[in-house]
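New here. Your pick:
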Amino acid sequence: MAGATDWNPILRDEFSKPYWDELMRFVHAERQMHEVYPPHDEVFAALHMTSYENTKVLVVGQDPYHGPGQAHGLCFSVRHGVQVPPSLRNMYQELENDLGIAAVVHGNLEHWARQGVLLLNTSLTVRAHQAASHQGKGWERFTDRVIEKVNQKEQTVVFVLWGASARRKKQLLDLSRHSVIESAHPSPLSAHRGFLGSRPFSRINEILEGAGREPIDWQLPA
C-alpha cells in the first residue's frame, strides 16, 4: 500500500502474513493474463482518500465494477465521463427523495470519500467482465481487518450495510459504540425490497450530529 496514508502502520501486520503474499501473487498473475480492474495504482484508493483518522462512515461494497474504465477504487463510484451504473442511480434517487438533493450527471463519489466516508469493497480487484472472479482469494480477510480496525475507533462510526453480503459484516461490530444502517442493496434487482424509502443519508447525518460529529455534505459537485 504505497504512498502516504495513516492506514499503513495500522494494517502493516497484514502484509507479513502468508495469505497476503499469496493474494499479491494471484493478482499479479491475473494481470499478466487478463484485464483486471481497477488499475494497479488505484486498488487502495479508498484508504488513500479516506484516512483512518477521518473515517466516520464506512460503506461496505462487494466487487469493483468489472466494465472498462468504471472501477477506480471506491465502492459504487465511477470515474468522470463514465455512465452512472444502475445501483448508483438508485442511490441518487433515494438521495433526492431523502434530502431533496438532485442527481448529478456523473458517478464520481470522491467528494464523499474526502469527508470521511470510507467506500470499501470487500474484494479490491476483479477480472474484466467476470463478477466475483477475485472473491475468496484473500481480499476479504484484509478488508475484514479494515472493518475491525474502524470498529476499534473510540468515536461513533456509522457502518452502512446494503445487501446480504454486507450485512454479514455486522458480527464484526461493537453496536454499543457504533451505529449500523442496513437494508436491501440499491441494485435494481433488490432496491424495491427496502432500500428505496430507507432514507440512509439523513439518518447517517442525524447519527453523526447526535454524536457531536460533522455531518456529510452529500451534494456532489456538478
The helical segments are 7-11, 18-33, 45-49, 86-99, 110-113, 139-151, 164-167, 200-210. The chain is about 30% helix and 10% strand.
